[in-house]
Amino acid sequence: QVQAVESGGGFVEPGGSLRLSCTGSGAAFDGYAIGWFRQAAGREREGISCITWSGDTAWYVDSVKGRFTTSRDKAANTVYLQMNSLKSEDPAMYYCAACVSVAPGVILPSSVAQWGQGTQVTVSS
């Protein structure tokens, strides 16, 4: 199973930016597409991005497309999520996990995904 630790969350005003990091443990992290998921209070967890093992291809849901960018540093076993133009609808606990993109705009955790502690993102003026 794919395990990782998320970091980089915090408090930001609307329109601000944050960069989240997801660092995998050992060889189990390599070879898998890695996605970012978020869960706001009272809502289902949703997949928002997924990047291939090579880092050449990434998918996004419409709500973050054009504002969020995911990238991958294989040497560092780390996947990033650069979040720009943060909005009032973005606050949530953000998690990374192995992912699959099953259809345009539909990102799901893969069968080997494991959930870590997550990192909290708060957007408020």
Note the topology.
Elements: E1 4-7, E2 10-12, E3 18-24, E4 34-39, E5 46-51, E6 58-60, E7 68-73, E8 78-83, E9 92-103, E10 106-109, E11 119-123
Parallel strand pairs: 2-11
Antiparallel strand pairs: 1-3, 3-8, 4-5, 4-9, 5-6, 7-8, 9-10, 9-11
Describe this protein's structure:
With 125 residues, the protein is mostly beta strands. It contains no helices and eleven strands. Strand 9 and strand 10 (106-109) form a beta hairpin. It is globular.
- Count of distinct strands: 11
Low-confidence stretches: none
Count of separate DSSP helical elements: 0
Radius of gyration: 13 Å
Q: Main beta sheet, described?
A: 7 strands, mixed
Proportion of helical residues: under 10%
Question: Overall mean pLDDT score?
Answer: 92
Form type: globular
What string, H for helix and E for strand, traces the elements in order?
Answer: EEEEEEEEEEE
Spatial gap, N to C terminus: 39 Å
* Helix/strand/pairing category: mainly beta
Beta fraction: over 45%
Highlighted features:
11 strands, 50% strand, four-stranded antiparallel beta sheet, 125 residues
Briefly, what is this?
It is built from no helices and eleven strands. With 125 residues, it is mainly β.
